[in-house]
Design goal:
Order of helices and strands: HEHEHEHHEEHEHEHEEHHEHH
Strand content: 15-25%
Largest sheet: 10 strands, mixed
Number of helices: 12
Oligomer: single chain
Shape: globular
Distance between the termini: 80 Å
Structural class: alpha/beta
Number of strands: 10
Number of domains: 1
Helix content: 40-55%
CATH topology: D-Maltodextrin-Binding Protein, domain 2
CATH class: Alpha Beta
CATH architecture: 3-Layer(aba) Sandwich
Radius of gyration: 24 Å
């Protein structure tokens, strides 16, 4: 019988342990996710849950660090970084991609949705999957769609209850052609501006107002620089959680499945938190001294008539077949009991 020398055995054991340790270390992947919302916004809670669940569902292989409040840059800069692979995950608007992926602009068409039930049906439908397919060649992998909320109008000059009340207001709008044309058609002086610059512009009266979901406004302290809010629900803004394709392709199939599961659950959590928060945010605004006005159905119909030419114009540019399919999903949800 051949005897194994104790020293040799110890060496082999140590080498095996080192190799195993190296394998574990190589399997652990560190990643960043960034977004523009402050840490008081429901999105920050959902993103933290995504990071936690991704670690759990990948058995600790994927460790994600979350950065809120645009710490990693504007939405546009973060999207570019995610495309380049220097940032692994991003959650936010895909509007900066709209010049190359026209279908993204469908979310900016005004007055498509009546309630969140319709929105969530579309967020889980076929049309948004087509948008994810369209963005993949630009270096992004879509993981899930979630909510941000219906956009409403705020300003510091006067209560807005009719279309005429909008005339002459200098409003910050998203830097996309649909939003610009929509507000110009209503009579506003529409100014495209990065949201990170908006609070200061409102504070020094360089702007009269802006439009955003209510919880977005509250989390970003619009109550400190705005006196009036009008409930218009003119556009629903969703956000997408996307991964860098370069990073995604480096993951194992098991880790991809774990991260995808985490993203889906975090997206559903964000919707839930937003729905719950909408119930009391108006009360908060009123308590802070901000007037909150409803716009009558008749006046909203007048606004819709003013913006219809914008809808018709961009329907053709976005793609009539795609827009018709998108609207069909809304109508199906509307008809469902």
């Amino acid at each position: 019988m051949t005897k194994t020398h104790p020293t040799r055995f110890a060496f082999i054991a140590a080498l095996t342990a080192a190799l195993l340790g190296s394998t574990v270390a190589m399997a652990e992947v560190k990643a960043k996710i960034g977004h523009a919302m402050p840490d008081t916004h429901p999105q920050a809670t959902a993103v933290a849950k995504f990071a936690e669940l991704a670690g759990t569902y990948t058995n600790g292989n994927v460790k994600i660090q979350a950065f809120h409040s645009a710490m990693l840059g504007s939405d546009e800069k973060q999207l570019q970084a995610t495309q380049a692979g220097t940032q692994e995950f991003y959650i936010g608007t895909l509007a900066p991609l709209s010049t190359r992926v026209k279908e993204v602009q469908v979310w900016d068409l005004p007055f498509l949705f009546q309630n969140e039930k319709e929105v969530y049906a579309v967020l889980d439908g076929a049309s948004v999957k087509k948008i994810f397919d369209k963005i993949e060649p630009s270096g992004l992998v879509g993981l899930t769609w979630t909510g941000m909320g219906f956009r409403n109008l705020s300003n510091s000059r006067r209560a807005v209850k009719t279309a005429e009340d909008v005339n002459g207001l200098k409003l910050r709008v998203m830097a996309n052609p649909v939003a610009l044309d929509t507000w110009k058609s209503i009579g506003a002086n529409a100014v495209p501006m990065a949201f990170s610059e908006v609070f200061t512009a409102l504070e020094v009266k360089a702007l009269d107002g802006q439009e955003n979901p209510l919880q977005h406004m509250w989390a970003n302290k619009m109550q400190e620089v705005q006196k009036h809010i009008s409930i218009t629900n003119h556009v629903y803004t969703p956000v997408a959680l996307v991964a860098s394709k370069k990073f995604w392709d480096s993951l194992s199939a098991a880790d991809k499945a774990g991260v995808q599961k985490a993203a889906t659950e975090a997206g559903l959590l964000q919707r839930k938190l937003l729905d719950e928060g909408d119930r009391d945010v108006i009360t908060k605004f009123k308590a802070a001294g901000v007037s909150v006005d409803e716009v009558s159905a008749d006046d909203l119909r007048k606004v819709q008539a003013k913006v219809q030419p914008v809808v018709d114009k961009f329907k053709g540019q976005i793609g009539e077949e795609f827009v018709n399919g998108f609207v069909a999903e809304i109508e199906k949800a509307r008809a469902a009991k």
